[in-house]
Amino acid sequence: MNTADSDSAAGTSVEIDDVQSGALRPRPVPYEGKFVFLRVEDRHAGRALMRRLLPVTSGGLPGADRSRDAWVSVAFTYQGLRALGVPQESLDTFPQAFREGMAARAERIGDVGESAPAHWEAPFGTGDIHIALSALSSDTGQLDKELERARVAYEDTPGVQVIWQQDVHQLPTGRTTFGFRDGISHPNIEGVGLPGSNPQEAPIKAGEFILGYPDETGSLPPMPSPDVLGRNGTYAAVRKIHTNVAAWRRYLRANSSGAEEEALLAAKMVGRWPSGAPLALAPEHDDPELAADPHRVNNFLYRENDDRGYRCPAGAHIRRTNPRDSTIIGDARMHRLIRRGTTYGPPLPEGVLEDDGADRGLVGVFLGAHLERQFEFIKAEWVNDGNFIGYPGEQDPVAGHHGGTGSLTIPEKPVRRRLQNLPSFVVTRGGEYCFVPGLRALRWLAELEG
C-alpha cells in the first residue's frame, strides 16, 4: 500500500490508499456531481449493497490516470450503521454528536427559526437516511460512468431504497449563487503529500482530519472500535443550504451609493472579491490576475499586515471560518476543517433583485475527526457569535441567521462603519452527521455476520 510521508522529524505517514477519495481530494474545477441518500430495509440488504459498491469506491489522491478523475464516496449515519447490524458495543464507541445526529443538536449550531429541523426538507432529520453516496468529477462523461456503476449496485439490491437525490454543478460563471469563487482554501495536512493552498500555513496534524493518527494535542483522537472500523475514517457534516440571492443583492444596493461601493461592501462581508482575490492582498479593488495565480490567491496571513481588520474585517465570512493567525480568543489550528462546497440550482439572472422562487444554494460537506470541536465549534462560536473577535453578538454576515437584526462592524479610519438590520441570506434546508469509513472498514461492513 502506498503511503504519503511527512518530514522525517514528524515520522507520521498516512495510509492514503485506504482513505476514501472523497475525504482528502480537493474538489475538482470545474465539477459535476450528485448526492444520493439511501434507506436500508434490513441488514442483509445493506451488506449486499456494500459488496456491490466496493468496486465503485476508491482511495488516494489524484494521479496520472485521468480515467479515474471521478470518484464515489460512501458514508453512513448512525442509524445507517445500526441498519447494517454493526454491534451495539461498536456503535457505543462513536462520539455523542454523531450518535445524536445533527437535527438533535440544531440549537447548538444555530439552526433555529426558519432553519430549524421542523422546516427541513424530507428526509433530513427523520432517521431514514442510512447511507449517503456522493460522486464528483471534472468530466460529465466520467461522472455518468461512475454514477451508473453505483446505480446498478443499489438498484440491483432488494431492500435498498433511494429516498433523496441532489445534482450539484459548477455554474457557468464558475462562482457560487452569491457570485463569488469558492473552493480556494485547502489545509496543509501532515503526512498526506498534498500541498495546502496556503504556503504560509504550517502543516496540521493528520489526526485533525483522519482517525488513527495524532492530532494537534499530540494524542490520538477517540476512534470507533474495532480498529478496522475506525482507522482511516473521518466524520462529515452534510448540509443543504438555500441562498437568498435576491435579499443579498437588495441589501448591498440599499447600503451602497453606487456599483463600486456595492462591490467593496460585498467583499468586506465575504473577505474576498468575486474573482477570489482576498482583501488581505487586494484591499481596494478586485484583482483577477492575482486570483488566477494558485501560488498567490491563498498565500496570506492576517497578523502582520491586517491584525485590526482594516483590509479584511475580523467579522468577514472567510476570516471567521478560518482566522489563520489572527489575534483571537483560542487556537485556530484546533478548529480547522476540510470544506467541500458544491452549488445546486440555477443562478439568479444578473441584476434581478426579486426572488424568482427557484431553489438554489449549496450542498456543503465539512470533514474532520472531531465533530464537536471542529464543525460544531465553528458554527456555535465563530459563525453564530463574535466573542472570539471582540464583537459579542455579531454573527457571520453571510452564513449567520440574522432575522433582520444582524450587524457587522467594518473597521475604517477615522470612524468604523457598522452595518445594521442584516437579514438572513441563507436558510438551512437539512443536514446529517455521517461517518466516512476507510476502504478496509467498508469491506469489514460488507462481511458482517449475524
From TrEMBL:
One Pfam family matching this protein: DyP_N
InterPro entries: Dimeric_a/b-barrel, DyP_N, Dyp_peroxidase
Gene Ontology MF term list: heme binding; metal ion binding; peroxidase activity
Source species, domain of life: Bacteria
Cofactor annotation: heme b
Keywords recorded for this protein, A-Z: Iron, Metal-binding, Oxidoreductase, Peroxidase
GO cellular component, one term: cytosol
Composition skew (Polar residues), residue ranges: 1-11
Keyword Metal-binding: yes
Keyword flag Iron: yes
Domain DyP dimeric alpha+beta barrel: 70-151
Region of interest called Disordered, as start-end residue ranges on this chain: 1-25
UniProt record similarity statement: Belongs to the DyP-type peroxidase family.
Name listed for the protein in its UniProt record: Peroxidase
